[in-house]
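Hey, resending since the last one bounced:
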Amino acid sequence: MKAKFPSAPIFRSEYLRGWRPGLCLILSTLSLSSCSPKAQLSLFQGTSSQEAVAKLSEKLKAPVRVLKIEIQPETLSIQVQDPAAPTHVNEYTYRKITGLLAMVLPAVVGPTPVRLNLINPNLEENLFDLGEVNFTAVPKTVEEAVLRVALDGGGTARSIQIQRRVGILPPSSGDIEWNISVAGPRESAAAYADGQGRIRRLNLDGTLRAQALDYTKDPKALTEAITQIRDQFGSEPVFNHFSVSRLDVSFSARVSKGSNETRGYNCNLNGVRLGLNDAMNIKLPKTMETKREFFSIDDTDWSRVPAMCKIALGKINLPHPNIHSIELEKPPPTLRERPLRWRAQVIEGAMGEYGFVEFDPKSGQVTHVQLPDSQVKPVDFLDPSKTPELLANIKEDFGPAARFQEITINRDRAWVKGTAPAHPGEVRQYDYNAAKRADPGIANSFKNPMDEKSGPQDLFGAAEFQVYEARLGELLQKTLDRLRLNEGKIDRLTFFKQSPFYPGNKKLLLEIRCQGKGDDGRIVYDPAGTEFDLVGGHPSGPV
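The structure tokens again:
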């Protein structure tokens, strides 16, 4: 027996005649609505975004406090605080729907609950009034953003996010900001505007230009950056540091005229902005701050930077040398005033050993080369031929008017405590080694209580220790012979007046220390070459 199935309905032509006028009307309406100029506009064009906000406002309950607005070509979403439950945020979305779908689907949907995950956990500080956003500026701002980022192959706006800027350390909320995302066939970028739609800065990090950028090699890019900085900060002596690296030009400038307080900034393709520490309000301890002198942006020839970087690569012999950065600064006085200088750091790979090359800021001529540690030839300051050379350098560095508290000479290092032309009333310590000469180092960050007890009567001049120089070889040999140490060698020389061991002394003394196999000793001499004191060893004759 055959199963019976319901027969399909048969529409005869006489039945369709009654439907034909209505069907034609629907198709005509659908065609006209989708082809009208207004229907083809995105929310970035004309008054579309304003109309979308007006539609959404019909569903929003006053007062309208906004957390975030996002505009895309076909949708506009607003996250708002729930007035009835102030700790809650809901999202309402306007959808630009045309044609037959507009007859079926609502244009506005919501409220949809929002799960909050705020950097600044204080919700109130993240909110703003809807009236603070100038939606009439959307078309012009989007057009300007696309022009300003100038993507390769052109670009189109993908979205606009509007919310308060957020600081991470400490968590805080700032002004209202538009983040306009622009994408092209090969690259992307972003433009940032204020609440009224005025573009304030760009982010071109995702562009091909940013990937190929190198300020240490590209004079045109460097000139553009320096022009931006000069236009914003002027050419007065308000700068105390510049650092040019591959990705940006960073610098420090006075907070206000006459102030010694500075802020750090960065300049790159995105423009000038606060450096990370200042943007996050991070303050370094006073002991970590570097004191520098102020100068003008025009005190150097910026066009020479790429050439100086190239020269620096040739001066520091490394297998894979790179320019880490080249810095412009006028260091604080050490022995005497120090001039403005460029200092290029050449590094092996990304984190290998490094050296420095210094240049004159105007001529670009090399003034000093500091080799990597592995390439520095060792020096023995106690070698009979090297000690006089070291003492001559000290006299040259400090000048004839300098006064010394102590000069100590080891085999691979010497340090000098004394005054200098730049600090005539203050005793400071300076180090000498194979790589550096009269380096203030970090020793002056810590005060020795014994040094503070020293007065002018405890200082001596270069002419006073010269009396020892002529007979230094004789005294060294006399010490070895007198102490009779097993395999004894000279270990240290010290010129001094003040000592807790000799509180009544007023003469310049020379202490010569010796180290032997399992034993040591020392002899102190006065300017006449007479033994002032003897300690240790196995001396021959009376002590």
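Confidence is low (pLDDT under 50) at residues 1-16, 23-34.

Sorry for the duplicate.
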